[in-house]
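User: Predict structure, ligand S-adenosylmethionine.
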Amino acid sequence: MSTHRPHEHAQHGQHEHAPQLPPDSGDPLANERYWDERYSSRDHLWSGEPNAALREETADLAPGSALDLGCGEGADAIHLAGRGWRVTGVDISGIALARAAEHAAAAGVADRVDWQRHDLAESFPAGRFDLVTTHFLHFMDGTLGPKVLRAAASAVAPGGTLLIEAHAGFPKWEHGHPTDVPFPTPEETVASLALDPAEWEVLRAARHKRVQNHPATGEPTTRTDQTVKARRRPG
Ligand SMILES: C[S@@+](CC[C@H](N)C(=O)[O-])C[C@H]1O[C@@H](n2cnc3c(N)ncnc32)[C@H](O)[C@@H]1O
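Assistant: Predicted complex:
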């Protein structure tokens, strides 16, 4: 079990109430207005700390070019940039990206991160990358997640790494989430990627527990996330 400080909501002792999901806009969880409203509701939505899984799973990789999909307020991209990576951070929310750019400037890595606004249901950044990573990018439309993740795999350069970190579910005490978000298992995620074994090696497809403090009481609680990590064989 990871004992690292989790990438938890920034503010404690209160429940975040997610805005109404827009009803008529494709996948309502992949919606600019939904995310802009969530980000506008607070000075910062996330802790500002990089995700533990990102730190651990990339620690032994030689820095190169990286793509972070659904980068939010930028903590993971900034962590990678601080380790010498050239990073493209992508998000649907201009509010999140503006904050990410401010944080990158404060961390002295602004020149190593390119922030790009994309709705990944509609467009995808150009290029190939030595690392393509995404943390907690969940969709309600069961076809959209696999579509975005297959595009993510296609963007991995030969010899590069694909890292997908996801929740296995929302804890009961975390309020404000839509109730019908699908959570594919690691095995289902790997299957939906349809990676050619001649070209890819799956390094990890597993659930893991991590400790997160209860937002109201501060008590440590355990939740389950999952990691899919694959390496594209050198060309
Ligand atoms: C749960 S947050 C995770 C943020 C960040 N990866 C982290 O771990 O702190 C999901 C992020 O995905 C972004 N997102 C959701 N749908 C998207 C889409 N269709 N295209 C691009 N980004 C999207 C949201 O704006 C949000 O910042």
